[in-house]
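To assess whether the prediction recovers the assembly geometry, we first specified each molecular entity separately, as shown.
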Amino acid sequence: MATAVGALAHTEEHSGLWSWLTTVDHKKIGALYGITGFLFFLLGGAEAVAIRTQLAVPNGTVVDAARFNELFTMHALTMIFLAIMPMGAAFFNYFIPLQIGARDVAFPRLNALSYWVFLSGAVILTSSFFLGGAPDGGWFAYVPLTGKQYSPGTGLDFYVVGLMVLGLSSLLASLNFAVTIINMRAPGMTLMRMPVYMWIALVVAFLLILSLPVLTVGLIQLLFDRKFGTNFFTPGSGGDPILWQHIFWIFGHPEVYVLILPAMGIVSEVLPVMSRKPLFGYSAIVFASASIGVLGFGVWAHHMFTTGLGTVPQVVFSASTMAIGVPTGIKIFNWLGTMYGGNIRFVTATYFAVAFIATFTIGGISGVMHASPSVDAQHQDSYFVVAHLHYVLFGGAIMGIFSGIFYWFPKMTGRLLDEATGKLTFWLMFVGLNLTFFPMHFLGLAGMPRRIYTYDAGLGWETWNFVATIGAYTIAASVLVFVVNFLMTMRKPRTAPDNPWDGATLEWATSSPPPEHDFDVIPPVHDRDPLWYMRDHNIAMPAPPEHQHIHMPPPSYFPLIMGLGVAMMAIGVLSTFAITALGIVVVIYSTWGWVLEPTD
Amino acid sequence: MGSSRSGRAAIIIGSLVATAILTWAIFVAFADSANTPQTTFIPASVQAALVRDAYMIIFILAGVVFFAIMAVTLIFTLLYRERPGQTALQFHGNSKLEVVWTLIPVIIVVIMAVPTFSAISETSKAPPADALKVVAIGHQWWFEFQYPELGLTTANELHVPVGRAVSVTLESKDVIHSFWVPQLSGKVDMMPGHRNHLWFTPTQARPEPYLAQCAEFCGISHANMRFRVFVRPAADFDAWTKSTAADRTAPTTDIAKAGEAQFAASGCVGCHTVKGNAAAAGTVGPNLTHFGSRTTLGSGVVDSNPQNIRKWLANPQNVKPGALMPNLNLSQDALDKLVPYLEGLK
Amino acid sequence: MAAATHHTAPAEHATTMGIDHRKLLMWIFLASECLFFGSLISTYMVFRGDSIVGPYPAEILDIPLTSTSTFVLLMSSLTMVLAVYGAQHGRPTMMRVMLLGTIILGLGFLGFQTYEFRTFGAEGLVPSTNQFGATFFVLTGLHGTHVGVGVLYLASLLLASFRRTGLGRDQVLHIDIAGLYWHFVDIVWIVIFTIIYLIPQ
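The predicted structure of the complete assembly is given in tokenized form:
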């Protein structure tokens, strides 16, 4: 075996498909995450458009009930796990080393493994559409509906296995990011000099590290219930369906912050740079983010106010949910404080960031409204909740991600996205999102439950459903315009300057796009906004030593092989355990190869 | 223009006016949506009114916060756009201001908490002793209602008297469902293996039913799991209990009599109870003793009329996807007999 | 090239917190594992006494047997400590012997567990029997999996230590990190043992 490992070692190509398959460069991996995440964003969007088309008019006949249930389940899973999280991970991958002044993440090969495991999970989950039916129990998969008795098909098995694989990927990535941020900061970058975005990356990493194992346990238990006849969640044999809800939401609520915090981080980068002034209340934003991370573990049962929790838990979780609204409110004020007195450069990234404040605030307000169990009893599982979560995840997370795309695109590609087309994207998306999601508040108020594939005329739901569908098509158009912009821009020469926005953080201290080793010389950090400090104090970047060799880790295909091994282990659970056994062998083989592979 | 004092004033006033108009328009749309058949905002019970009052306060607070944040965002957007000659103020924060705006959300949530907790303490009280007891059981995809003290069982239409507390025990036979009559009560889940409770005191009798719908996703026909609540004056309710306690109206016409025979021959009796028809004692499907007096069939999915009954019997899944009633492949002749029989079960 | 490399070599190993990346990774990973076992143990606690049919824990748990296997696993922590000591003090033979001892004791523990599972199976307790079976097998089975992974991990280190280059310049670190993992798995077992076997139901 050692010979085989030896023979395959040393794969040093710098371009072409092989270089992408074996890359351990955080920038390339970030790009892979970004492209993959965006493609799944398109898929999730297509699912959303199908859902909205079905609901455009009463008694729609575009899709049948069974397909509709698959669509709304997969729309959520795709957007959460395959689009927003990986697009967030793309920026983390790309900018954690660049913002802290490092040459790569702490574990470059582990980073590649995270991506390949993510891709395996994404493909497995999505393939369910063609292999006997997609999961159709909603993204939180409440048992007993998702148990073997009421979901005898394989869809829910794909859900369980897919989420386990995706969870593994996120865990590996988070461990890597946490170690990188804690341990690889440039000289002078103390914790309180880190960009807010790095603080948020750290909080997100710990949220995932501490919440994913809980989900994994729940998934193992659900798998045992479905495959081996145990009764964790089956009532009547001693099991309890409420337990699943607790387990799911102990993961699920921190997960919500995993989705929204990165967008908050992006906005906290874009607003000060574009306003040409420092972030207002840096420490407040840092402490608010950290306390959101801590409190995020103490609010899960507000998803369960209607399950018969009892009075005391209702009051406790109501209070904790109201409490978590406070740090969120502080952030909104701080972003406005950052704009105050600025000389704001309104480019597309700024449009998205400012719109984020407005649309995220709407989602925040409706979120705090649900903190009241009495009100929640009317809102829970109605379209009011659908409106709320989309204002947080689209109005928040997606708007933030688009701001980040326009902000960092020149750094990542050396090209500036076209501004006029970008603004068209923005206006279509902004109008589209409000057209789609604001009417859902009205529908919820009018008593429309979520997850219904049809409704009768005469309930006062026709108008707003139709408006929401028009909005969905408007969003689709905006995304299409963006794709055109992307494709056109990528054909242009690389003309973007190194620091087009006069950014303050270290990623702007290197070339656009950065060299493989990120920095010719690691910039010194004297201040929270290091480049502005150097600009204002006339400090030049130190020149690189004349004969410099910077050692970068060589490419490796072991992450890819191990990713395939993990995929085989998962596929085995869905088909025959022999494949799982083979997968374990592959994982062990690649672990040894990994360890023995020379990295010098 | 933004640089001059009057220009700034124009921006601020214009933004405030624009935001006010937007807030007002949204308010109008909310008010309009509140006035719909399945509304959550027009209470018809003591408890729903309590919730609505808490909701109202929270709603107004939400409106104020919305107006404030939107207006400030808009003003800053217009006021601090880059202009030639303008420079950005350089400061890192303002401790006093930050303390103030930490207190603002604290005060807001405290204001929210007061009506919330008082509503919780009110609705979590035990129902009065003379409450009408109802057991509501969720099935995929219909509701069963039992009145244990009156010995009645019905499906998909709940009848209650006005002015008397109704205490509902919630159960489920299969998966999680949720009992939600927006105008009478917020939702509480029907949790298999658990017994949940809610109670409400209806305040407004009316001939039209209060519309209701399962609120927890429960499988393929979740959208078609609806029910109706009839709030009636006490006398009407008593009359209803009498007629519901009675056996089914015996078929009088020949065709209806043949229908009763067909009802047994086609196996319907295995799943459905028809009191007075000794053969029909099944409990899997809805109790059909007074099927003819219900306004809908298939758990509210279509109006109850001869055409729809026929359509349903011919192929239930066609009317309601996933319906657990099997397609019995009934002949035209069998349908001809069954429809008048079922319709006659008043 | 070789001349150039040594410029950067020291910088590569300087970390912000002064702790090696790999060790930090293991610490954070173990934090995640705490939540993993915490959730499994909580589930066990939630379903304590909820079995509707037997065999019930009191009827089937063989406390003397499992006390023995617990002792075996505890001893493996001792040998692990000695292996780390051997590595730190440049005594490769001691390190290898103690690693081997840890591996054997770990395998011994797994042998006891296999025997216990088989006996339970013969007496009619499988995961689908009742709530005790479900929670017991999933919790102890996943713990056993962790022991098994640990055995593989230590065996790989032992094998690698016989290479010409041994475990390289980071030998102490490698053994130290493996020790962290091994001790964690042991400590978790003490919690599991106390909750399942010692606290009467």
